[in-house]
Write a structure and sequence with these properties.
This protein is an alpha/beta fold. The chain contains 12 helices and 12 strands.
Length: 341
């Protein structure tokens, strides 16, 4: 009898130790319930896709932020195409299953990716969105991004200034319906057009975030509208494809092109006079500020707020200024500070 009582007592002590251990592990978690983890932190940072200049700059910013913190590791990975929504979902779910301390990502599809954010919240894994959020956007999940609507309203002003009082015909090349950034830029652009009755929107075709598709749809537009005066392409692949099509048509410098982002081919296009202006975001700042906020959230419980990371209009006349060069070629040593955010 005494032996049985002793065995029960030992079992209860062991059970208590297990429960205490579990409680201690939960307390250390960097989840939504509070920031208490002081040891090593692993943060997954997932762009819409890898292989694009924009996302590589965001990667630089995220890595730079981690390097300035103690025991913080950024794990960077992404799908190869921004249209691969299911691939991004699988990747993010794998990160959650592996037990990352925080999730920083750009949503390829606002509604579909909301379910991933919801899953992360249920696991008490904090989430920060960069560039593109979800629909709905949970109040506890901040977005570090451009104010795309406000920035896109400036595009018709740039086109109107270039074409003069007589105005002209304009084509619009969006990139992926259903993503927050695409829909916001579309909204802002059309809103800005209302101030310029001299500008006539004659064609809208999507690049699907692919250079070759952007090239093909621009060729189709130029065939249908041989006297086209201007093009607004709303992201990097669309801009590059549109500029190539215009050049192949022998109209480089004759058609106003306003683009978005600042890949090397785009910047060269501005330098060569083939692209009139670029609306340049600050992806380095998105990555940097998001990771910095995530670390504070995990370690101190600081609730991060959404942030407008700003834009800068880059033209041939200002592209060689030191501050603009820091934006176009960001690094941890010379981080960009421009922008209206």
């Amino acid at each position: 009898m005494k032996q049985r009582a002793l065995a029960i007592g030992i079992a209860l002590v062991a059970l208590g130790a297990v429960i205490a251990g579990c409680g201690a592990e939960t307390h250390k978690s960097g989840g939504s319930s509070g920031g208490t983890k002081q040891g090593a932190i692993r943060i997954a940072v997932v762009p819409k896709a890898v292989g694009f200049s924009f996302w590589e700059d965001a990667h630089k910013g995220a890595t730079c932020a981690a390097s300035k913190q103690k025991d913080v590791k950024v794990q960077w990975d992404g799908v190869s195409a921004e249209t691969d929504v299911s691939g991004q979902v699988d990747l993010l779910q794998n990160f959650l299953t592996s037990g990352v301390d925080g999730l920083v990502y750009a949503a390829t599809d606002a509604k579909t990716l909301f379910n991933v954010t919801k899953q992360a919240i249920s696991k008490k894994t904090p989430v920060v969105n960069i560039d593109s959020g979800t629909n709905p956007q949970p109040k506890e999940v901040p977005v570090y991004a451009t104010d795309n609507v406000q920035a896109a309203t400036k595009v018709p002003d740039l086109i109107a200034k270039q074409l003069g009082p007589q105005g002209g015909t304009v084509a619009f090349i969006p990139f992926q319906a259903g993503t927050v950034t695409n829909d916001q830029r579309t909204q802002g652009f059309k809103q800005g057009l209302k101030k310029h009755p001299e500008l006539k929107l004659v064609a809208t075709q999507s690049s699907q975030s692919d250079v070759n598709t952007g090239l093909r749809v621009t060729q189709d537009i130029l065939t249908a509208h041989p006297d086209l005066n201007a093009i607004f392409a709303a992201n990097e692949p669309g801009v590059i494809g549109a500029a190539q099509a215009v050049k192949q048509a022998g109209k480089a410098g004759k058609i106003t092109i306003v683009g978005w982002d600042a890949a090397s081919d785009e910047v060269k296009g501005v330098s060569d006079g083939e692209i009139t202006a670029l609306v340049v975001q600050n992806p380095f700042r998105m990555g940097y500020d998001a990771v910095t906020a995530m670390v504070k959230r995990i370690r101190k419980g600081t609730e991060p707020a959404s942030e407008d990371t700003g834009v800068t209009i880059v033209t041939k006349s200002n592209m060689n200024e030191p501050a603009v060069q820091a934006l176009l070629r960001p690094s941890c040593q010379t981080p960009p500070t421009l922008g209206s955010g």
